Amino acid sequence: MAHIETVPVGVRLSTDVEYRPNRANPYRARVRWFDPTTKRRKSVSEGKDSEEEAQAWIQTIIEAAEAGLSPSMATMKLADYGETNMELALRGLELKTRDPYLSGWRVRVVPALGHLPVRMITNGVIDRTVQNWIADEHGRSTVKNTIAVLVRVMEQAVRDGIIKVNPARVTGWQKLYKQAEDELLDPRALALPGWEALVELADALVAASHGEYRGWGEVVLFAACTAARIGEVSGCRVGDIDTTNWIWTVRRQTTPAPGGLVDKGTKGKRARQVPIIEEIRPLVAQRILAAGPDPDARMFTGPRGGRISTAVLRDATHWDDVVLKLGYEHLRRHDLRHTGLTWFADAGVQVHVLRKIAGHGSLTTTQRYLHPDVHKITAAGAALSAHLSVLRAPRSLPSPIVVAR
Fold this sequence. Notes:
The chain is mostly helical and 405 residues long. The chain has helices spanning 51-66, 71-74, 78-89, 95-113, 123-135, 140-159, 173-185, 195-208, 214-226, 230-235, 281-291, 310-317, 319-325, 335-346, 351-358, 363-367, 374-392; strands at residues 13-19, 27-35, 40-48, 241-242, 247-250, 252-257, 260-265, 272-275. Helix 3 crosses helix 6 (140-159) and helix 8 runs antiparallel to helix 9.
């Protein structure tokens, strides 16, 4: 059994908040204490955006210490806690059940929540995470197994006294799954209305980001205009762009994995070609120039040169707040892809070509983006009726042959 570090009641904690300019989180909150067991002085710290947030963080550490929990345990990340206590959390499970649980933990839970302290994981955080798993089109059994292993780990945290209530016991996620399925039956409803709306969104996200990094807006413009996933945009290299014919060969995507983001093949496991429209060609040319001559250089990165994921884009741009203010509260990062495919369909791109651009395995999936033009549908019905009318019409008898006498 893992050892849960505690502190005797009454152990004195010293706290301070230090302002460090020119940092993404300039207010460093720090708690220090003397460990009576090891006879050593220990400390934990964390950067925050404001002094108020720093003081609030310190207060949570103080409350944990008053409950007998050490500051280091109170700030322990979910990934570390799970690694230490997984065997205990999964006790009693059969091997055939453990494997999908552990896969869900490594592939989904750790990349999404592993960086958060156990005590900071709330019902709301888990609700949004589950919604993202559903939006990423994971199967029902996959989501179920992922939630199940998270519930077990968080239940162990309850037993250890780190948290009081298990926030992972979410209810109604099956209804959310059904809602997501219904939305995917009509992906056009998730698209932005036009170019102006896209530019407005990109500019607003840049304005909301730290340092107003233009790269976030360029990622959004490029993703929508190429109908690509954010992971595919992150995986784009200079050598993938043909500036003679203005075509992007989509070869890879960046996805979360234990230990960070990694590159792997596209979702369809095969490369596809996507046109680069005139509206974003200057943007692409500038990105190529900035990336340098190396064909393996990334086209799009974060402000510090790091890889981009949908979660990184969301957090860096305060996505949820921005789209709510713009009146697109339903809009997710994946809906940029829905936007591009809807625009391609409305432009008259033939369905078999649109399927290649999208990389869809099924033509049925692509057909959902076609405009349900009522006039064309009724005209098709009228044409069929006219055709059948001709078939039903009685055929005229041949004229009698008159024999001369």
